[in-house]
């Protein structure tokens, strides 16, 4: 089973920062996952929430601020003073960390309450400009966005995210169409996902931080897990 660092090495570094990405890139793991939003001035930036309130010393929505405005805030000290001064990364900066590595890069397109028209096109453009189309997986909980990725860039791997799965998920996947399913752990151990794996679906599971949980996935055909604790999961998988 492969290991993807979730939001970078987010157990030990502030999530979705270059420090968390570099720490992930330095490990013998298989991939990394991070989240993107769109700024007021049309820049794709890496952050989990649609507001900067939780993971910076600022307040406000990403969509209401330009990149220079977002750069006025500190995205590290909320986690630990050691990381004070960490900037919000752009998508291009995050991709650059992994460009010369063998890690797969899972870009999650966020669409919470506010929609980001044109986000899919911008992400594809940046991935193509860096010649990383074979290295990325683009996922979203918004399955219309997943379908748009399939239309815009059929050669890029796209993935549909699920909290709860649906019955006959393999047929649903085909309808989108999505090349992979990214599934919340409780759904990953249920029958519909098991059936999808039997039918050939690529399934990756989030977020797996405990050995007992990872153990449930061994032998199920799950391709990869996303974890905040990549070193812990590496040690666990090595001993199984
Ligand atoms: O992409 C898998 C996982 O990251 C989805 O949930 O909330 O951590 O972005 P969340
Ligand atoms: Ca995510």
UniProtKB/TrEMBL annotation:
PROSITE patterns: GP_PDE. Coiled coil: none annotated. Signal peptide: none annotated. GO terms for molecular function: phosphoric diester hydrolase activity. Residues 1-237 form the GP-PDE domain. It comes from the Bacteria. GO terms for biological process: lipid metabolic process. CDD domains: GDPD_TtGDE_like. This is GP-PDE domain-containing protein. It comes from Ureibacillus sinduriensis BLB-1 = JCM 15800.
């Amino acid at each position: 089973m492969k290991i993807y660092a979730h939001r970078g090495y987010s157990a030990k570094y502030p999530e979705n920062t270059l420090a968390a990405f570099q720490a992930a890139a330095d490990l013998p793991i298989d991939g990394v996952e991070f989240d993107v939003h769109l700024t007021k001035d049309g820049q794709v930036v890496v952050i989990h929430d649609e507001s900067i309130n939780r993971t910076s010393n600022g307040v406000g929505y990403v969509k209401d601020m330009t990149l220079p405005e977002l750069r006025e805030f500190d995205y590290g000290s909320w986690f630990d003073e050691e990381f004070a001064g960490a900037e919000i990364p752009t998508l291009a900066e995050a991709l650059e960390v992994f460009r010369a590595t063998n890690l797969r890069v899972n870009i999650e397109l966020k669409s919470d309450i506010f929609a980001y028209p044109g986000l899919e096109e911008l992400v594809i453009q940046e991935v193509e400009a860096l010649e990383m189309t074979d290295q990325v997986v683009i996922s979203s909980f918004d399955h219309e966005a997943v379908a748009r990725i399939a239309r815009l860039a059929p050669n890029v791997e796209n993935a549909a995210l699920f909290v709860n799965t649906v019955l006959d998920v393999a047929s649903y996947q085909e309808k989108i169409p999505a090349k992979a399913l990214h599934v919340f752990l409780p759904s990953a151990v249920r029958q519909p996902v098991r059936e999808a794996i039997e039918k050939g679906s690529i399934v990756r599971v989030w977020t797996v931080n405990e050995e007992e949980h990872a153990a449930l996935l061994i032998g199920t055909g799950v391709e990869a897990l996303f974890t905040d604790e990549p070193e812990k999961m590496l040690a666990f998988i090595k001993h199984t």
